[in-house]
Amino acid sequence: MSQVRETESHGNEEVREVTVETRDLTKRYGDTLVFDELNVEIEEGEMFCLLGPSGCGKTTLLHLIAGLEEPTDGGVFFEDDRVEGPDYRRGVVFQDPHLYPWRTVRGNVEFGPDVRGEKPDSEHVDHLLRMIGLEEFEDAKPGELSGGMAQRVSLARTLANDPELLLLDEPFSALDAMTQMKLQDELLALMGKLDLTAVFVTHDIEEAVYLGDRIAVMGDGGEGIRKVVDADVDGDRDSEEFAEKKREVFGLFKEEIQDD
Ligand SMILES: Nc1ncnc2c1ncn2[C@@H]1O[C@H](COP(=O)(O)OP(=O)(O)O)[C@@H](O)[C@H]1O
Ligand SMILES: [Mg+2]
């Protein structure tokens, strides 16, 4: 298994592979229709954001891609194979870091290989601890960490499994604004270095525009994905291009408010 995959050149001529595809994906919980016959493709190497109000089905869609939930109808395909259950190649990062309090920082990062009965690759773990800036804290226990540090450990623990796809469910929403912005930048840097594809759930328009290559705007009441917007804008939050993209995405929600 490769530790750090080399990033291929992303020239214009390159056709991007589809990493995840949903085919007529329908999910109900009893009488609640979350979405109906949803079709979406997530391309290799992109950061694909799921943006929408609380209860619209973002977590449900992420869990279906992870294999933590079963479709009511249709299916999810990961590299052309039907998703039938969880797989560490699709790593999940939750809003709450869920660290193991009795393990050290290093012990938490080594958790995945440990439970699979593999000897953790100490160089890889060192590398991850350095990338998240916590090499000095490797012996600390989760109780000694700030919220931002704990979420970094949670991210590193998922990355220690060497996933191809990272699935993140509002991972920074419980953190203060400054820490959020720092972690957003760290995540973008990690994505580039590790050649990852990611699905990032958020209800924050600015976060989606900053992070996303594309944003799927979702509606509630069974609507599913209303529109997929290109959001490959420059990373300057103060630029006119950035503000314009935020307005465009916000406009997609305004329509809904006016329609009601
Ligand atoms: N395990 C469950 N059982 C019943 N209903 C659920 C369950 N999980 C989610 N739902 C319902 O499905 C809808 C979508 O929920 P969710 O995916 O958590 O939304 P979001 O993450 O966008 O806030 C909501 O109406 C929610 O109440
Ligand atoms: Mg959710």
- Tell me the number of helical segments per DSSP (H or I, 4 or more residues long): 8
Structural class: alpha/beta
State the CATH superfamily name. P-loop containing nucleotide triphosphate hydrolases
CATH architecture: 3-Layer(aba) Sandwich
The neighbouring-strand order within the major sheet is: 6-7-8-3-9-10
Beta-strand portion reads 25-35%
Principal-axes shape call? globular
- In quaternary terms, these chains amount to single chain
Bound molecules: adenosine-5'-diphosphate, magnesium ion
Order of H and E elements? EEEHEEEHHHHEHEHEEH
Percentage of helical residues? 25-40%
How would you describe what is shown here?
It is a single chain. By secondary structure, the chain is α/β, with parallel strands linked by helices. The protein has a single domain (30-42, 58-83, 94-238), classed as Rossmann fold (3-Layer(aba) Sandwich), CATH 3.40.50.300. It is built from 8 helices and 10 strands. It has helices at residues 58-66, 105-109, 111-115, 122-131, 147-159, 177-194, 205-211, 240-259; strands spanning 18-29, 32-43, 47-51, 73-78, 81-82, 90-93, 165-169, 197-202, 214-219, 224-230. It has a 6-stranded mixed beta sheet with strand order 6-7-8-3-9-10, with helices on both faces. Strand 9 (214-219) and strand 10 (224-230) form a beta hairpin. Helix 7 crosses helix 8. The longest helix has 20 residues, at 240-259. It is globular and about 50 Å long. The protein starts with 17 loop residues before the first strand and ends with a helix. It binds adenosine-5'-diphosphate (ADP) and magnesium ion.
